[in-house]
Amino acid sequence: MATGHTDPQRRERILDATLDLIAEEGIARVSHRKIAARAGVPLGSMTYHFSGIDHLLREAFGRFTDHIVAVFDEHLGAAADRDQAREAVADLVHELSEESQRDLVLTQELYTLAARQPAYRELTHEWMRRSRVHLEKHFDPDTARQLDALIEGLTLHRALAREPHGRALTVEAIARVTTTDRSAPRGSDTP
Amino acid sequence: MATGHTDPQRRERILDATLDLIAEEGIARVSHRKIAARAGVPLGSMTYHFSGIDHLLREAFGRFTDHIVAVFDEHLGAAADRDQAREAVADLVHELSEESQRDLVLTQELYTLAARQPAYRELTHEWMRRSRVHLEKHFDPDTARQLDALIEGLTLHRALAREPHGRALTVEAIARVTTTDRSAPRGSDTP
DNA sequence: CCGCGAAGCGTACGAACGTACACTCCCGGC
DNA sequence: GCCGGGAGTGTACGTTCGTACGCTTCGCGG
Q1: From the alpha carbon of B3, which nucleotide's C1' atom is closest?
Q2: Which of A176, B10, B152, B176 has the fewest CB atoms within 10 Å, i.e. the most exposed one?
Q3: Cα A149 to the chain's mean position, in Å?
Q4: Each residue of A56-85: pLDDT tens digit?
Q5: From the CA of B187, how many Å to the nearest CA of chain A?
Q6: What's the pTM?
């Protein structure tokens, strides 16, 4: 093996092309042929490098998970204290819901798979785990968990809403969840 | 028309079968033939009742949205005061993430479509709008919006987590978001 | 310089797909 | 009692798909 006429980039180009295509057209419309065309490789390479289309998809989403974990690391890992962590969370929500349409779509595709197949759920577990590790540097475990869920909800609603909420609302929600004092429920019952 | 040998239930049976099949196998694997077989109708009925498979999917998800809006109405509409609303929200999160695997999967499929196609986004808008109408009976608009996002995040994370969080955590998160007092950030910076 | 085994590719095949459309069947009007 | 037409269906066509597999290409040990 490794005779020199192998092309180690082939595999990765195929995986990238797969993710691009899924982001654009959806899992329902990807095929070996379209991926091969986009990656600029012959059709035969598909079955040579991957045992089947399921194998290909699993590996592609593994790659995507690595990427998104890196995005979380980048944002949350740099925070030095609690306030910076709150800022970082707000940045994360807005970046994910606004700038990277691609990541958003791929995230949804992954969740859809995860909702049905345990194999894909493993990928989301690792992602959630890593995210919580960062948050637990600044908040207690329960708060970290709530905050993690809040990030998810805010990002999704912001991305799908007709009129996305502003940063102030994101910041307020984060502040509320990361505040222990819950002795003062709101006074009046009619807002 | 209406000659008596028409079958008005045909259409709805097809739509139900479509949703069942999507829930079980995913949008990527549905086909006219499988749907027809499951609904117990001949293949020809597919193109007779629906102009194409896109038309069929849109209508099916419209039907699903009606259903899920009804679930929200049922839970949130009955709440008489703020505390009952909080309880209702907690119930909603736990019912969606625990009991109805089908609804969860279909929700994800819809979000995936919505992330890419504006036509499907309309359906999620209506759903979010309706949900907020209920919440705004008890909370101010900003809080309602945050709570709506929180429901989304808690439900999803609870459904996908290896060890789903307990009700206490859900309740705590809801309490925090629906509490205005944010003058007391946590004391120490190392939990 | 020569073959040999691995690396990679082109092609072909069977299955499944969406859709069009000629057809049957049956009710209501006469 | 019959016939016109609309409701509903069976089938067939062209396309696209995943995958298998025989073939070519090429670096390297002898």
Answers
A1: C27
A2: B10
A3: 13
A4: 999 999 999 999 999 999 999 999 999 999
A5: 9
A6: 0.91
